[in-house]
Each structure stands twice: as C-alpha cells, then as structure tokens.
Amino acid sequence: xxxxxxxxxxxxxxxxxxxxxxxxxxxxxxxxxxxxxxxxxxxxxxxxxxxxxxxxxxxxxxxxxxxxxxxxxxxxxxxxxxxxxxxxxxxxxxxxxxxxxxxxxxxxxxxxxxxxxxxxxxxxxxxxxxxxxxxxxxxxxxxxxxxxxxxxxxxxxxxxxxxxxxxxxxxxxxxxxxxxxxxxxxxxxxxxxxxxxxxxxxxxxxxxxxxxxxxxxxxxxxxxxxxxxxxxxxxxxxxxxxxxxxxxxxxxxxxxxxxxxxxxxxxxxxxxxxxxxxxxxxxxxxxxxxxxxxxxxxxxxxxxxxxxxxxxxxxxxxxxxxxxxxxxxxxxxxxxxxxxxxxxxxxxxxxxxxxxxxxxxxxxxxxxxxxxxxxxxxxxxxxxxxxxxxxxxxxxxxxxxxxxxxxxxxxxxxxxxxxxxxxxxxxxxxxxxxxxxxxxxxxxxxxxxxxxxxxxxxxxxxxxxxxxxxxxxxxxxxxxxxxxxxxxxxxxxxxxxxxxxxxxxxxxxxxxxxxxxxxxxxxxxxxxxxxxxxxxxxxxxxxxxxxxxxxxxxxxxxxxxxxxxxxxxxxxxxxxxxxxxxxxxxxxxxxxxxxxxxxxxxxxxxxxxxxxxxxxxxxxxxxxxxxxxxxxxxxxxxxxxxxxxxxxxxxxxxxxxxxxxxxxxxxxxxxxxxxxxxxxxxxxxxxxxxxxxxxxxxxxxxxxxxxxxxxxxxxxxxxxxxxxxxx
Length: 727
What we know:
The chain is an alpha/beta fold. 39% of the residues lie in helices and 17% in strands. A four-stranded antiparallel β-sheet has the order 6-5-14-16. Strands 10-11-9-12 form a four-stranded mixed β-sheet, covered by helices on one side. Strands 8-7-13 form a three-stranded antiparallel β-sheet, with helices on one face. It starts with 10 loop residues before the first helix and ends in a 14-residue tail after the last helix. 41% of the residues are buried.
C-alpha cells in the first residue's frame, strides 16, 4: 500500500486491488479468521440460477447479506457466507434447448445422455457468471465453500431426503389433475404458474333439460351455463349450482343434455360454486380444471380427458374436434353451438390466465400420473415454528402469506417430465415398465440409492430408472444443511448449522422459504435459520417491473463500470427504506460517487493534517477536548451506537442515511472546518480518531474505499475487514 492517498479516487483501480487483498488474506473463510469469541454467524446465499446474470434484486440482496456478514465479522463472530448456484431444471433446459434450436436441433435429436452433456457444457461455460459478478460487487463470500445443487455430494443429500420420505410413507404416485405446460411438456406445481390478464369472451351456453314423456310436447327448457372455455365442455360430467341459490333449487338432481356430445349429465349442488359468476350455473369438467376435479371427486363424477399433453383434442373430444389445437376446437364448438341455436349471448370478458413461469405458455390442467409428497404433517411443523417465534419474518406482515399457503396446502407434485435435474431414485421392472401404475396388486418398482443388481420382480431384466426428475425446489429446500455436508455429520454441519439469517424476495416465500423450514425441521430437528428478511422488490422509477426483455431492466454491472461498486452499493441501499417496493433512480448512485469522492478528499486532508502526529493515546477518553471537540466526540459515539442498532434491526437504508448526514455535515462541514482554525494536538487526535471510526462503521456499506483509506492510514495494522467493530 502507498503511504498516502492519490489526489483523485479511482474506483476501478482501487476495487480490483482491494478485492485481491481480501482474497489473499483468506479472511472470507471463517477458519482463517483470528481468534473468534462470539461463536458462528452463518448466511447462505439464495442460489441464483446458472442461466442468469446479476440483476437489481440479486444486487440488493447480496449487499444486505454482505453488510450483515462484514459487521458480524468485525464484531468477533466466526462468519460463514456460503455462495452457490442452482441447476434450475426447467429454466436451464429451456435455455439450452433454445441454443440447440439455432442449430436446427432438438433435445430429442441428441437423446437424453448427449443432451445432458450439452447442459453440463453450458454450466461449465456460463454457470459461474453471476458468482463472478458478485465479486465485482464486493461481496465477502467464502468461495472455498461454493456449492452447486447438482454436485455429487448434493445429489447424495437429495437421494437421502427422497428415501426418508418414502420410508415414512409420505410419497405416493397417483393420477391427478395437475398443471401441465404444453410447451415445456411437464407438470408444474401451483407455485410455478403465473397469471396474466387476458381479454377474452364469456359464452352463455344453453344446456337443454332432459324432458320426461309428459314434457315431450312442451317447449324445450334450458339451463344457461357461463364459461370462458367452450372447448372443454366436451369433457363435462355435470353442471353445478350453489345449494343455497334459490333460482335453481328445484333443478338440483335433474339432468341436462350436454350440447355437441349429446350425453346426459346431472345437475349437482356444491358449496364451492360462485353464484355471482355468470348465471350462477357452471360446467364441471373434472379432467381439465382443478376446482372441477375436487367437485368431481366429491360427487364421484366420470372423467373425460378431452385435451392431451400436446395441447390437442383427444378422441374423447369426439369427431368434431379430435386432433385440433385448443384454440381451433373453441372455434369449432362455438360454430356448432351457434348452428344449434344454443348460444344465448357472448360478452367481452377480462380474466387471469394461468401461464408457465418459465416459458409463458398457457397451462392446461389435465390428469397425469405423477409423484406427490404428502404435505399435512410437514406444513404443521412449519406453521408451529413461526407461531412459536422460533423463526421471525422481517417485515412481520409477510408471515400472513406464509401461513395462508401452509394452512391451505395441497400435496406437492414433485415430478417433472424433463431431463435436466435430479433423477428419482426409483427403479422399475423392465418387463413391466409399461405398468407404471398404482393399481391394486401392481408393485413394479423399488426405491433405492442405486440400481438393484437384479430385478426382484422377474429376476431376469435390468431395472430401468424413473425418467422423471424432481422439482427443482425439492433439492433447493435442502440448501441450508446440504451445503454443509448433510446427511453426513461433517465438521461444517456441526459448527455452522443452523444458519442465522436468510434474506430473500417475497415471490419465493412459499416456493423456497417455507420448504426450507419444514425440510430443516424434518431432517435436522432444527429450524434452518432464525430470521427471514423479505427485501424490497426493485421496480423502475415509474413503478413498472424491471425486465431485460421489456427494456426496463437496469444492469448492476453497467453501474459498477460507470460509477464503481461502492457508489452502486450506496445507491441501492440508499433507496432501501423498508418499503415493499423500491422505485429505482440512478441519481442515488451518482450521489454515492460524489460521497465517495468527498470521503476520499476528507481522508487526504486528515492524513496530511495529522501526518506528524505522535503519541496518540490508546484511550481517547483521557484527552482534554474543548467544548466543540467534546460535542463532536459524543455525537460520534452516539452515531456508532445507532448504526449498530439499525443494522441489527435490518434497517439498512436508515443506517446509511444517518452515516451520510454525519460524515458530510457533522464531520466535514462542521468539525473539519473547526479543526482547520483550531489545529491543536487534541483536535488533530480527534480528526484522526473520527475518520477511523467513520470508515469503520461505513465499511459494511462501502467496503472498497474504506479499506483503502484504512490500509493507507494504518498500514502496519491488519486490514479493516477484521478490525474490531467500534460498538
């Protein structure tokens, strides 16, 4: 390090140098830290997808975690911050498939093994991009602990979890109506679908009442059903009304003729029917609607599968529409209904349509044979942990979203019909492979950590492994303890589990946070962490969603290139004031750059002014300050105390605002100006002391410039990263 600061602050030069210093020091690794007196403090990064690059949400979350880790490290804790990435099953497979498409190929052209080789090549080339970008941001993760959710050891953890659930009787296979993406050709859980507003039509269709012999000569009577999907009526098993709807009480138990298909179906009553929708009469299609599936099961209705997995109509749809796409079938059915004079009216209608969270394709509910995890017992544990205060949400109101989902939870569909991911440790008899069923008397599979040497069913064949892979979130749910070596009883697991703080986004409270909580309780008998920080969502200045595809995204790497990492960190945290949404403004990053330059010039002045200062007392309280200096000293102590509390309370933006105001106005504008005209030894001592205290508490927020200033001023000391926290 140089003995004095250069005349101008150069972020790029400084940041590269300082990060290299930190890496060489080894202090990101808790085992290399000087003697620790306060135990462990552990944070594990929400593992970003290997398909991604750093976006503003990632940056905000990483800075929050870095602030916590840096402060705790300086307080004397043995800090571990584990980095890593997620294999992100569907997302990664889609990206690689798109890349293949440019070459005129599909995954089926390659076959499973060759396609997976391509994905591993992708991972090696692009998988760690975001981790490198984290380094540019200045995060102090322990890179020696970097994990990937498809690592060999991590795969063992996933298998162990599956075997545990199976042994406990919580896993089962069944044909149920699930969310099916016709584009990705896989099932999705309820949490993996999104909703987009769509303008469509509401069709009012006349279902003729079945007439007895006495009524045959009377005028034909109808019951009018309102639906947005006339194509699915081909699979209707009933029409339903609310039992208290006085308009239709006399019709419950009677029958109607299903138009186009011309089969008789009953009129039933069910309390789940919304009597305010349309006419209050709805069609019940158990094979192609999740609510209808429940109603169908309660009323023992037959199931007609009229839409297939490719999004085309099946033979059960009838000759009019078989083989047509859904949209084509809708047109054909409405034409036929109009021809029979069975459409009462058509209204313009706006509603939310379920789409795949990855490809944006329309979701088709349809029956499919899938693996499910029973959730009632697991959910109960997760609910109790938060109710008892073993886990706390910040802000607290996010507990409601957590409870709402867990208290109304359905069994989790954990199987995905893709190739990239954790294979099920399930092996089928090769001769009976076609009988992948749960029918009575059929038991043609075994669950094991490796393929059996011989088939226990036929004693002849080589057993075939289940082709489905596990939902990405099944493996991610194990993250806090799997990254530390579980299921083995490793030294890391003993020393660093449970974690302490999880910081994440609100959109994965149920996808990930809840699942980690009940997984931790199930496999370790401990909560995986104690505090959950739900950080703000970063929106554009006018409140729109940030998106690269929409042209509304902001790349943090561009900001770092333009202003430096410290200024970028400053600008992001400055706007993080505890609100649910954060409306982004680059002006605050510009302000961060000005603040960095201000701090640099302050440091240069203080270092020049105090370069000949000797005999600095170890205990500054013995120095006989004048009234002005004493007042500044007391304000400085109050500041360090308040900053410490604000960070501990997760009020990061508020802490930075306090620091900014003090450094710029109390220190620079007031005390430095005073010291210029009152350069007695006591004031010079306080100048130096005040600067060191300020850069120390500012370090978690702006680590690069503060480290550079400290190492230049105190070149014979250990780096600022491990300096004792002042309060």
